[in-house]
Amino acid sequence: MKRFLITFLLIVNIVTARAQLTVYNSNESWSRFALQPETLEPFMHSDTCLVFVSNRYIHPQSLRFVDEFLDTASLKYFFLEKIDGKWNVYKENTLQEAMQHLPVKKDIVVYAEGMGKIFTSNVERAQLMSSQYNVNVVMFDYASINTTYKPSKNFKFARNNASLSAGQYLSLLHEFRDAKQRGEEWISGVKLSTFYHSMGNIILEQMMRHHDISSINGEPFVDNLVINAACVPSRGHAEWVEQIKFAKQVYVHYNRRDLQLKGAHFLTMRKQLGEKSGKKMRAENAVYINFHDMVGWQHSYFMNFPYNEFRLSPAMVAYFSRLFNGQGISSNEATSLLATQKQPNARM
């Protein structure tokens, strides 16, 4: 019965996700985005702005100018500003050029999403994080779905692309570390956090396991590193998590009833880290937070989304606000902060 219920809920979830993706990939949605000529400078008339670092192919003359395939040859840097309901997208030569356009002295979150996001849906998620937590968001935008593929093929497509993106993500971290060492104005005096959701954690895992991180892994330059609802195997995760020295604090969020991760568990036949960490297998340098009693079946429980009835409790908002603004939270503090009664909206 339990297996049947999980299968049924997964089917409902997939249908809902594909319906949302159809909206994000519509001509109407894409018409809200305009890639600007490279000679044009941002107007800087809006506080609604983001930085995107993408490894997708770019087609400047197309309505869908950011496509759905991976380009492992180069990273592209974009500054986005929203004016009168439309996004102006400016291609920049370097991360530094893009970051200089963001509001100064806001804490920075480098955000890697999971499966199923095209460029337009990633923009929405980055904007929600920026507005709800008052931070500057840098979205690492990799190809995590192809709108012409079936779900089973997309699962493999997203996992493979996340793995292939690890080297480029490491290059991005190099740029942040170098900017901190140089004392660049846009990063000086602010907190820097990295956030990985779902399959976005494959990027981190593969970077730690298969790339030479020695050049960034000396003194910590990241304040909070957040492993959220991780779609990576739980077994053996301590081996690579304990190698993380470039972050002052590491947090692992899990929920044993997470519906999407139940599906990943079923497809891979391996328990996922975002389901259950296992106390005997935990990394010694990480703080583990169990969100089960607060979120029920939810998978994306770090923000409030307009298409989801689930809403974060005030305690959860306070917790994530502290995380995204680079404040350290001990295990006891997190337990105390989140020690509220089971939330009535935790059901799916």
UniProtKB/TrEMBL annotation:
Residues 1-19 form the signal peptide. Pfam families: DUF900 (PF05990). GO terms for molecular function: hydrolase activity. Keywords: Hydrolase, Signal. The keyword Signal applies. InterPro entries: DUF900_hydrolase (IPR010297). This is Alpha/beta hydrolase. It comes from Chitinophaga barathri.
